[in-house]
Task: structure prediction
Amino acid sequence: MLDNAKDFEERKILRAALRDLLKKKRDKREQDRGSRQQDLRQQGLSKGGTTGGGCWHRQSIHEPAASNKQDVRPGLSVSRR
Result:
């Protein structure tokens, strides 16, 4: 359509219409994304979960489970098979 336009004014009008169309599509996508995020937050809150991408704590394989850190002897390593 833009390629077939001959004079400057017609091309100018077509470019403006394309910009408006792209802006509307972008705004719609952002609105949909925002509503999806809000829905996910509400679902997380209703389940009692966290919304901040919770942090999982794993014990390191190099740190043995000991209630007292003085019980851990340095130099011991965990062997992997």
The mean pLDDT is 75. Residues 1-50 form one domain. The chain is about 50% helix and 0% strand.
